[in-house]
Structures are given as structure tokens and as C-alpha cells.
């Protein structure tokens, strides 16, 4: 943990490769010093269609799924670090959002 799910608009890859986007989020998460490298997972999901009242051409939204136990201050700092990294990419007409979410107690995992 954490699992970072990057939701973003198709077309953003003209400015940044999906792999680079994942590395950027990974670096932001690691900068928080809350997690071991081996525990961080990042994946990207591209959306062909979206609508924004603000008329941005692109969006990036990152859900950082966490096991419970982090303070609100830690989660806010984590979100801020990920956001700052994404802002630094300089992609024009980009709407960025990040949220750190505690997983429910029903979360289960298996490694096979």
C-alpha cells in the first residue's frame, strides 16, 4: 500500500508518456516518506470522454488508496506532494486533483 490510480484524459500522452506520469506520482508518494518503495503501486486509466465545466482540455485525478492509520495531516501532505509534482509537468489546459482515501475494512488481498 498505497495503490495509486491515475485517471487521466486521452491525449495527455502528447505531453507526457503514461510511464512518466506514473513515475511522477511514484516520486511524489516517495517524497512523503510514509511508505517503503516496495509497497507503492501505481497504475493509469485513460478516459476517451470527459466533460469539465472549466473547459480544460486535459485532466489528471489521482486516487491514493491507503490502509487506515495515517493522520489527516499526513494524508494532506501526501496529496500536496503528488499535486506539486504534477503541477511541475507544465501541461497546458490541465485540471489536476488528488485525494488520499482510507480503504474500508472489507479490503482483502491475495498473492499467488
What name goes with the CATH superfamily? Macrophage Migration Inhibitory Factor
Mean pLDDT across the residues is 95
Strand content: 25-35%
**CATH hierarchy class name:** Alpha Beta
**What is Rg?**
14 Å
Structural class, please? alpha/beta
Number of strands: 4
Largest sheet strand order = 2-1-3-4
DSSP helical segment count: 2
N- to C-terminal separation?
A: 17 Å
SSE pattern, N- to C-terminal: EHEEHE
The third-level CATH topology is Macrophage Migration Inhibitory Factor
Low-pLDDT regions: none
Helix content: 25-40%
- Name the CATH architecture: 2-Layer Sandwich
Describe this structure in words.
- The structure is a single chain.
- With 112 residues, the protein is an alpha/beta fold.
- It has a single domain, classed as Macrophage Migration Inhibitory Factor (2-Layer Sandwich), CATH 3.30.429.10.
- Helix content is 27%, strand content 29%.
- It has two helices and four strands.
- It has helices spanning 18-31, 72-87, and strands at 3-9, 41-47, 58-66, 94-102.
- The protein has a four-stranded mixed beta sheet, with helices on one face.
- Strand 1, helix 1 and strand 2 (41-47) form a beta-alpha-beta unit.
- The longest helix has 16 residues, at 72-87.
Amino acid at each position: 500500500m498505497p495503490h495509486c490510480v491515475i485517471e487521466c484524459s486521452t491525449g495527455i500522452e502528447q505531453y507526457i508518456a503514461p510511464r512518466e506520469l506514473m513515475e511522477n506520482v511514484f516520486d511524489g508518494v516517495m517524497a512523503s516518506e510514509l511508505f517503503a518503495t516496495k509497497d507503492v503501486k501505481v497504475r493509469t486509466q485513460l478516459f476517451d470522454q470527459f466533460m469539465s465545466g472549466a473547459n480544460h482540455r486535459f485532466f489528471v485525478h489521482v486516487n491514493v488508496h491507503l490502509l487506515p492509520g495515517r493522520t489527516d495531516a499526513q494524508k494532506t501532505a501526501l496529496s500536496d506532494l503528488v499535486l506539486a509534482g504534477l503541477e511541475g509537468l507544465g501541461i497546458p489546459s490541465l485540471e489536476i486533483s488528488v485525494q488520499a482515501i482510507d480503504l474500508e475494512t472489507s479490503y482483502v488481498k491475495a498473492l499467488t
